[in-house]
Known about the structure:
Elements: H1 7-17, E1 21-26, H2 32-45, E2 52-57, H3 59-72, E3 81-84, H4 88-96, E4 101-105, H5 109-116, E5 122-128, H6 139-147, E6 153-158, H7 169-177, H8 186-193, E7 194-196, E8 199-200, E9 203-204, E10 207-209, H9 213-221, E11 225-228, H10 230-233, E12 239-246, H11 250-268, H12 274-289, E13 291-293, E14 299-301, H13 305-316, E15 322-325, H14 329-338, E16 342-345, H15 351-358, E17 364-367, H16 369-372, E18 384-387, H17 394-401, E19 413-420, H18 424-446
Parallel strand pairs: 1-6, 1-11, 2-4, 2-5, 3-4, 5-6, 12-19, 15-17, 15-18, 16-17, 18-19
Antiparallel strand pairs: 7-10, 8-9, 13-14
Helix pairs in contact: 1-2, 5-6, 11-12
Amino acid sequence: MKAVLHPYQEFCAQWLRDRNEAALLLDMGLGKTLITLTAITDLQTLGVDMGRILIIAPLMPARHTWPDEIAKWEHTKHLTYSLVVGSESKRKAALAHQADIYVINRENVVWLAEEYGSAWPFGTVVIDELSSFKNSRAHRFRALRKMRPYIKRIWGLTGTPAPNGLMDLWAQANLIDKGERLGRRIGGYRERYFSPGQRSGHVVYNWALKPGAEDRIYERIGDIAVSMRAKDKLRLPGRVDNVVEVELSDADRASYKTFERDQVMTLADAEVTAASAATVANKLLQFANGFIYDDTGEAVDIHAAKLDALADIVEAAQGQPVLVFYAFRRDRERLLGAFADAEALDAGADDGLIGRWNAGEVPLMIAHPQGCGHGLNLQAGGHIIVWYGLTWSLEAYLQANARLDRQGQTDTVIVHHLVAKGTVDERVMDVIAGKQAMQDAMMDALRDTKIGAGDETA
């Protein structure tokens, strides 16, 4: 297929071609993969020595999206690639294979760095979903940063650069420019741009931006980062967000309030840490979904209110495919047990299920947003999303919705959120909305102004 790039895509491809260090902060669905492959092809055509090219991506895009996009387009199908996924023996065999591009899932970055060390052979590295490296303490970040001196060209791609606030930017920028713009140490970044927020003794729970810090941060990274938002570049069919209030029975609501009080009391009687707070929050989310894991790790079912609400939505869909996002392993088990025609899209799924979904042959598909929320093109298969289990992660939320709400979608996307009334679900919706405001502010601050807004068609 011949690719006809939109003007903004041409601009972004040129942006990459002109920079050894660059970040594309593009909304989901704006074609980051096509843009990147075009830039690679163009540089090769110009005779630029890119060295061995490594693409680091979430598992599903590594297995499916990048190979599919390479083969899809007339100007990229000549590129050869090798998938560095699977068992260690398969990964080693893939690395030994001669290819233009090597694609590895992000979980294997630590292994790859240990495998090569100072003999790192990849002169060009593309990080698909750069925000996956936002945690400066994570092993994958530290492993790749050790390899950074051996990388000549590095491009980062993401649609969610600051899902939890601007503190997330430091690690991502550090991988791109080795600390030139936001500092070589995260402690210095915090000191320059943030003040301690909530704290208990020496433990700081959150950091607040200093006055004027937001603008200074954007200005510092503006020469390497370009941002665009889908609403400005494409005329998509649109999206409708719907909150489906789920009523618990009087007995279940009373049980939830008691459970909530007991869980909060456990925090009051001990030092509150991020881990303990997350444990309590997850317990409350489990109850809202209809079960809890007991102290032995066994799931105890409590109510089926959300299952009933989902059944109503599926019935109202009148056979139209529905994509359901769940939060916990027990959610998955209950969904598969309650809906005979449901199929699970797991991280290791083969092309068959994705192909049948896009052909409209799967009436109900369930997926976990963390495992299947990045990179997959599912817009051909349907336009209805249901959030059965909500997530605190803005990144996971935005990425998951963008599987259907993206370029190529022909119908208005409907996103249902099952919210158990009087539970933590209501708080999650508020938090997601607050984080979205921060994310939008950053994207607007860094957006490119060279391309006219709203002049693109899907």
